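User: My collaborator sent over this chain with a note saying "see what the structure looks like." That's all I know about it. Can you take a look?
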Amino acid sequence: MANFVPMNCALLISALACNWFSNLVEFDRNLFTTLNSASFSLGDILMPIITHPLTGVPIYMLMLWLLYRKFFHEANSAELQTKHKWMLLIAAVAAVVATFGLCDWGSAEFFKYTICRLRPSHDPELAGSIRLLEDAGGLYGFVSSHAANLFGLALITSLLVRKRWYTIFIFIWALLVGYSRIYVGKHFPGDVICGALYGMVAAMLVWYIHKMAVGRFGKAIY
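Assistant: Without extra context I'll predict from the sequence alone. Here is the result:
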């Protein structure tokens, strides 16, 4: 009798959690259907371009250029010796690469094959009802690697570059890429949102490690 009440409470909580999760998944699926079907002619042209990995190459080059300028041409770097500037630049680039690697590996290898949530293009309940502007892609889509990578890079480079215009620009770009994944039919909104959250958590982890690594030299410039 002593275990009866706790057991019933545990079963009730479990049932409520399962019901809440089922409702959340259903809401995510319905939201996907709404966003994916809200097409417009210009979007059909632009979204596949925005979502293509090579489209981001000029932005990655901009990131490197801004990092170089920060350490070699901005006023608060004048007190640093050249060798320390190079050290900070290499450490910053390493932080960016580490963030990308952590986001890409975690999203593609850990989450997708642990959660095993089907992409919209492989979901039998959505068969024939989605607009797919690309190939169907891999079987699993949670979390979105595009969202994880872009939001992770957006946060780590914003913390490194520290320019308001750049922060606004890079997060708008990350949002556009995230939306494009839904528009072209490759991800549910939940895949994108959770991917973005994972990417930013990974970026913050790398940021704290980076600050500890550069020590007193970083204090002069961040």
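A starting point for your reply to your collaborator: The helical segments are 4-37, 41-51, 57-72, 82-115, 145-161, 164-183, 189-219.
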